[in-house]
Amino acid sequence: MINYDLSKVKAIVFDVDGVLSAETIVLSHDGEPLRTVNIKDGYAIQLAVKMGVKIAILTGGNTEAVRMRYEHLGVEDIYMNCAVKVTVYDEFLKKHNLKDDEVIYVGDDIPDYEVMRRCGCPCCPADACTDIKSICVYISSRNGGHGCGRDIIEQVLRANGKWLSDAKAFGW
């Protein structure tokens, strides 16, 4: 269980590679990175959006497939090609008038470190690097790309009485 006051959480920000996709990426014949996605993560993301939780994607990657995936799930804040994530994180906070303690950030590696030191509730998958694990409030039992996103979103929605709370839960 996440040891944090989840009633304060208004937004969950996800890294992609190693969090919402597995840490190993297959390359296409033309060098394009091909990522995996987890269907249960996708269900939880779209439900969180419907329930009023701000979901954001903040990734160093830059592929149209990633953008299309999360737009299809209703995510409006998709930040790609982020060289310095903390700068983009600040823009996201300002855009939505959010405070650090209202945000969960889910990351797995050093590029996420600065943001995770700032957000209220840093979380990571089970296979995150040691430095990230050392600063997390919660380490999921699930690996990146294998349900880590669902685990965290489900806990937030349950804590706020929004998991299976109405008909929105039973469809896409």
Automatic annotation (TrEMBL):
Molecular function, one GO term: hydrolase activity
A Pfam family reported for this protein in Swiss-Prot or TrEMBL: Hydrolase
Record bears the keyword Heme: no
Key word Cell wall biogenesis/degradation present: no
Taxonomic superkingdom: Bacteria
Gene3D superfamilies: HAD superfamily/HAD-like (3.40.50.1000)
UniProtKB keywords: Hydrolase, Magnesium, Metal-binding
Cofactor list: Mg(2+)
Protein family per UniProt: Belongs to the KdsC family.
Assembly with partners or alone: Homotetramer.
Protein name: Hydrolase
Naturally occurring in which organism (per UniProt): Prevotella herbatica
Organismal lineage: Bacteria, Pseudomonadati, Bacteroidota, Bacteroidia, Bacteroidales
